Amino acid sequence: MSRYATTDLHGCLHTFRRLVEEELHLTKRDELYLLGDYVNKGPDSRGVLDYLMHLQAGGYQVHCLRGNHDQALLDAARHRWRWDWLGPRGRLPTLRSFGVSRLSDIPGQYMEWLTALPYEIELPDFVLVHAGYNFALPAAEMRQDHITMLNTKKYVYDPTRLGGRRMLHGHVPTPTAQVRAKAATHPGAMGLDTGCVYRHNTELAHLAALNLDTWKLTLVPNCEPAYTIGKR
């Protein structure tokens, strides 16, 4: 049995399938943890959700938590805020993937799946979260501060607030060389987002998966059919 974590798929179905099927060779004895952001920006948000649901229904131990883009899709579909912040480059591919013209028309099973996603996953040796925590808060409040957990880009890691566990997160695209170098040090806190969706950026444009027991990092280059994406 092996345990893996990856993050920030952003509609990159082909790349994710290559990771799961050709690189990790995932079996039903393995555990795969995903740290959020399955939708928006990239070409096939619906395909990613379909594949994740397919794996789970097939008995694979695939555990998914919530990202800020997953939350944004839920909120926008429920008319809780306007969608303008993402812009047409991020919005239109998402709508096309679902075959709808309005976010409120996305089929209910996808909304239900996203609504059920937890904000964190706790393992004996790791805490998994999409973005991080406000470690200045009392421990109980820190882990109920969902806005920070989904959106923060800075934190001062304090392992005592997590029972001595390491923390893994996504959310902030980081050059693959930096992520590879950090994984080699077995750090207390680490981001795994290597900006897979930004296919034009040679320092990013990879999907990273970390083996939680060996610290081996697997990097799969973006292999999606050509799509429009803003440069980063």
**Tally of discrete structural domains:** 1
Poorly predicted runs are none
| N-to-C order of helices and strands | EHEHEHHHEEHHEHEEE
CATH architecture: 4-Layer Sandwich
The secondary structure category is alpha/beta
CA-based shape: globular
Total DSSP helices: 8
Question: Which helices and strands, and how do they pair?
Answer:
Layout: E1 3-6, H1 13-23, E2 31-34, H2 45-57, E3 61-64, H3 68-77, H4 87-98, H5 108-115, E4 120-122, E5 126-129, H6 139-142, H7 146-151, E6 166-169, H8 176-183, E7 189-191, E8 206-211, E9 217-221
Parallel strand pairs: 1-2, 2-3, 5-6, 6-7
Antiparallel strand pairs: 1-8, 4-5, 8-9
Short description:
With 232 residues, this protein is of the alpha/beta class.
Describe this structure in words.
With 232 residues, the chain is α/β, with parallel strands linked by helices. It has a single domain (3-114, 169-221), classed as Metallo-dependent phosphatases (Purple Acid Phosphatase, chain A, domain 2). The protein is 31% helix and 16% strand. The chain has eight helices and nine strands. It has helices spanning 13-23, 45-57, 68-77, 87-98, 108-115, 139-142, 146-151, 176-183, and strands at 3-6, 31-34, 61-64, 120-122, 126-129, 166-169, 189-191, 206-211, 217-221. The strands form two sheets. A five-stranded mixed beta sheet has the order 3-2-1-8-9, with helices on both faces. A four-stranded mixed beta sheet has the order 4-5-6-7, covered by helices on one side. Helix 2 (45-57) links the parallel strand 2 (31-34) and strand 3.
